[in-house]
Amino acid sequence: MDPEQIAPIIREIKEALPEIEEERLRTELDRYLRYGIVPLEAKKAIIRKFGGTPATFASAGEKKLGELKGGEMNVDLIVRCLSSKEREQKTQNGDRTLVTGLIADDTMIRRFVSWEGQMLDKGSTYLIKGASAKTFRGEVEINLGLYTKVEDAPNGSLSGLDVTKLPRFGNLLELKLKDVRPGMGNIQITAKVMDLEKRTIETDKGKKNIYDGMLADDTKRVRFTSWSDFGFDIGDALTIRGAYVKDWRGIPQINFDERAEVQKEKGVDFDVMKTPRLFAEDLINAGATDIEITGTIIEIREGSGLIFRCPECNRALVNGSCSLHGQQTGVADLRTKVVLDDGTGALFAILNTEITEQILDRKVSECVDKFRDDDRKIIEELDRRLLGQEYVMRGNVIRDDFGPTVLPAQLNLRESDDREEARTLMDSLEVL
Is the residue at 79 inside a domain? Predict the structure, then answer.
């Protein structure tokens, strides 16, 4: 059996035998299954062996889909199948066929997964005995396993069901983009599509088109990936229900697939956040996409200047050696590692090749010719041009165990109008 199928069985046994170590229970269950004993009987035998009672596995009773919170075991449901399809799933025991789709009762619509291939026909009504509920990407879904029985529902069940009036999801969390965090699921957002790119990727089922882009509202910009074609384009205002948030190096990224609802909004009028200007204190707990930060460069860090990269993996070489590929003839490059202080805190930033070339007013090849034997002069030049100067950086902020790192795509010297500042000061003195 797959680990995903075994996990709820172990949880049930553990509830009946809390004093027994989980690993021991897992070993016992594996032994029974290898001898071909069905899971339900295996559970009963293990509980008896350790002094429990099989009554623990009595049905939890009939439940409504809207009642389920995730984690329920052995529940009975009366539902109508709204959609059903087979798909192949790679597992530790090889490929297997699953059945997935949507079911509904008079409280809501839920997704189901049948691990043993129980096919539910669209439009038919069923009595499902011994199902379990789990949470996946913030949404409760129904699992049908080896010990789940699927029968025709009693005559007249759900006869007046109107699915158009049912909620597709559970408790949607309606958010502004500034509030999304990695790990969130089942969220609702309204935002404008700022850019969009179609990509083709390889999956277990072959090639698939996905759509990457940028969303913006009046609080922030966040990148997204749509795993289905919902027919939207750049400039469209969308309400997306049922999205989830993944993490790329501390930067939240919104994802949604065919289970989401994507609605184009007409007449939605909100000021799209341009490039937000944030402070160091805003970036302590999460990364960000396409932001500006202004501060004074107070340090040029070690590892700046002329470096050489591994031709295989692009890592910077240390004494001519790559940590993965050993001794290498490196490819020359430029970078600058700096510390930026904006008054609320200090941030580490890495200036890329193009920005470093701009600062030095020299290309990489020129620096190799001129400074290869004495690259300290490059550091001296970076010190002279950067230290103590106030800059505006625009780009992304990633986050790891060491804190946030700014990866600017643009670096501009902050220009101040001394005359305007003086005029403002004089006006304030005249008021006094």
Answer: yes
Q: How many Å apart are CA 282 and CA 260, to the nearest integer? A: 30
296 and 348 within one domain: yes
Asked whether residue 289 falls in the same domain as residue 398, the answer is yes
Please tell me the total count of domains within the chain: 4
β partners of residue 340: 297, 347
Give yes or no for a contact between 115 and 4, defined as CB atoms under 8 angstroms apart. Answer: yes
> Do 287 and 408 belong to one domain?
yes
Instruction: Rounding to the nearest 10 degrees, give the CA dihedral for residues 176, 412, 363, 396.
Output: -10
Contact 233, 203 (CB under 8 A): no
> Model's pTM, two decimal places?
0.53
CA gap 218, 395 in Å, rounded: 18
Which helix or strand (DSSP H or E) is residue 292 part of? strand 288-300
> Pick from 116, 136, 165: which residue ends a domain?
165
State the chain's mean pLDDT as an integer.
84
Determine the Cα–Cα distance for residues 100 and 143; give it in Å rounded to an integer: 9
Range of the domain at 284: 280-413
228 three-class SS = coil
Q: What is the pLDDT of residue 299?
A: 95
First to last CA, the chain: 81
Nearest CA among 284, 214, 227, 279 for reference residue 253: 214
